[in-house]
Amino acid sequence: MGYIGRRMANGIEAAFIDEHSDALRAYWNRFKDQLVECRAHYQWPPGSATENSLNSRELLSEEIRTELRRQGYLSKIAFDKVMLWGFGTDSGCSDEDVRQATGLAFSCLKASDIAQAARELVRLPRIGISRATKILALSDQFEFGIYDSRSAHGLSGLVDRGGRRLIAIPPGRVIAGDPRNKDGYCRAFEEYIWVLRHLRTLARENASFGAVFTRVADLEMALFMKSRDEKPAPRNPHHPVPKHLRTIAELDEENTFWTLGPGEKSKQFWVILEGAEVTIITGQKKTPKTLSAKDANECLAHFARERFPLSNSKTAKDRDPRGLGEYFCRNFGSSVFASHFAALWVHQGLLEATWDKGAWWLRVRNRAVV
Question: In the chain, where are the structural domains located?
Fold first, then answer.
């Protein structure tokens, strides 16, 4: 975009902030103490210790920055690491598609064209605004934050003079949000970044707040946890998100996971964490299965000494008696959910999984479930 383009972008940003400066300061004054507390207990994946969550983000961020310094685009390996961290599955994109899209996206980002950077990524198949902005935000956590239904919902108290939300919320499985087309979400992402940068400026007016919110990403993490703490009311089941918007918004992606697969055999499922319980919801009928932390800890302790197979066939004669499926059948009534909980525990860093001779094999990494 060049110098003139950057100057124009900065002028538009300044005009946006000036127009809404009173609303931004009112939001900050109302929620600043809550945001500090929320930032202090950031977790991703759910159930992870805050220190581990921050370290995971930083490792991904450093890998992205290293590749961009070296080649100006991301490899599929680095791209898919972010997808696995965020959603428990890879991107499904080809090496060439990732190379071209990220090369264009980061060229736009370097020129301060934030919305266009997001547009280049959401053109990829299966890449919605949350996936796209995770890639962009982790490239520079000082200046960018992830934009998804949760973090945007954390700003729902930020409204203009007419009482309308200043930042559109992508619709999710839990959060109704604001329906937009792809371009609308990309433009909202740019305005979201402008807002977070201004909130950082307001934080710096006080040394104690400025020390907490040194980066845009610190505000994003606080907003994400604010939304999770507030537990927004479930969407109206009689008014589902239209199919084309479900694809764009990725259906509340932070709760969406995929079984271990492999390939097309991998199935989508959803996770709800409530206190010491976790509920898996799967299938068209949304069949639930709930385990307590005690259930999970006992299961992981049972397998802690050796490598073991997933082996979750519905048929007893086809299951390995040493496998996780057999344990689930005997203790929880069904072998089917072994694949779902295994995928979640891999995502949380409790298990490691390897594909060997046509089957999944597992090993316990950490048996402590919070």
Answer: 2-248, 257-364
Instruction: Give me Rg for the CA atoms of the chain.
Output: 21
Between the alpha carbon of residue 77 and those of residues 60, 63, 84, 206, 291, the distances in Å are: 11, 10, 10, 41, 33
| pTM confidence score | 0.69
Pair of tokens at residue 212: 């907490």
CB of 4 within 8 A of CB of 107?
no
270 close to 255: Cβ distance less than 8 angstroms: yes
Give the list of residues 6+ apart from residue 240 with CB closer than 8 angstroms, or none: none
Q: Which of 143, 152, 134, 154 is nearest to 56 (CA)?
A: 134
pLDDT single digits (tens) 265-286 = 677 787 766 657 888 877 654 6
Is residue 343 a contact partner of residue 40, using CB atoms and an 8 Å limit?
no
